[in-house]
């Protein structure tokens, strides 16, 4: 059938698109679905069966094709309404009589090639850009910024996490020494605790029931909790490094994060 190759290429392109959109996180799909080779194989099998039973006078039944791809084969995995709409839009725009015309393009520069052999198809696919623009998946170019930022952050945090944690033999300062000095420095710079009676007196002068001052009072309470937590953690960390108290899981996490110049998890909470 002359329709077989363009439709097969169309299904393959759709498969790559639904896969690639996952890397953009919630911008690509609201829920990351596990589209896999089984979905592609089932769709190809359906297209093959449909064309085998085709009445040439009537042509391809596009309503059936779109329903099977958008609602059953790929759509069967999709649970979110907006994701379903997106998938059905892809099938509606790409799967029609229009896909057999020379002017048809998935996106600028991405068309269905007219080839005779598998090698020709392969060489055409090899000639496509190595890095795809988000626009060919129907996304804004800015989607790439988020993806690349996330990838870089993930890679850097992995590199930091797999660094050796024990003391080096290079003769330099050990991790514990570095963190101990850092803890002392931070304790010196840490502001003093708020004195409740002083805070109350000053707020009374400013007008304790004014909306902005109520908000200020809440902020002071929160800041006090942060200051107290940071101070107690740093004091305990120094004692743990000296060996006076046991190094707990929280203190170990604080030590690792401070050495890597990151905010410890319990502070961030």
From TrEMBL:
Molecular function in Gene Ontology: dynein intermediate chain binding; dynein light intermediate chain binding
Dynein heavy chain C-terminal domain mapped to chain residues: 149-268
Superkingdom per UniProt: Eukaryota
Domain Dynein heavy chain AAA lid: from-to ranges: 4-143
GO biological process, one term: microtubule-based movement
A Pfam family assignment: AAA_lid_11
One GO CC term on file: dynein complex
UniProt-recorded name of the protein: Dynein heavy chain
């Amino acid at each position: 059938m002359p329709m077989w190759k363009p439709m097969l290429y169309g299904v393959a392109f759709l498969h790559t698109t639904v896969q690639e959109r996952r890397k953009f996180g919630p911008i690509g799909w609201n829920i990351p679905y596990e589209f896999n080779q089984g979905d592609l194989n089932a769709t190809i099998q359906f297209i093959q069966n449909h064309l085998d039973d085709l009445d040439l006078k009537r042509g391809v039944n596009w309503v059936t094709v779109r329903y099977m791809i958008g609602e059953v084969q790929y759509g069967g995995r999709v649970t979110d309404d907006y994701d379903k709409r997106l998938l059905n839009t892809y099938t509606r725009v790409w799967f029609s009589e229009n896909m057999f015309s020379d002017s048809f393009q998935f996106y600028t520069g991405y068309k269905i090639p007219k080839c005779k052999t598998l090698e020709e198809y392969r060489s055409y696919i090899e000639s496509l850009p190595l890095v795809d623009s988000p626009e060919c998946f129907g996304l804004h170019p800015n989607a790439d910024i988020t993806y690349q930022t996330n990838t870089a952050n993930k890679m850097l945090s992995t590199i930091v996490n797999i660094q050796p944690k024990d003391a080096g033999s290079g003769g330099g300062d050990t991790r514990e020494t570095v963190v101990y000095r850092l803890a002392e420095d931070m304790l010196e710079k840490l502001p003093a605790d708020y004195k409740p009676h002083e805070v109350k007196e000053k707020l009374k002068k400013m007008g304790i029931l004014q909306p902005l001052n109520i908000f200020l009072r809440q902020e002071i309470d929160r800041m006090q909790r942060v200051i107290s937590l940071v101070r107690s953690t740093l004091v305990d960390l120094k004692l743990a490094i000296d060996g006076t108290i046991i190094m707990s899981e929280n203190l170990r996490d604080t030590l690792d994060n401070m050495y890597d110049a990151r905010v410890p998890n319990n502070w961030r909470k």
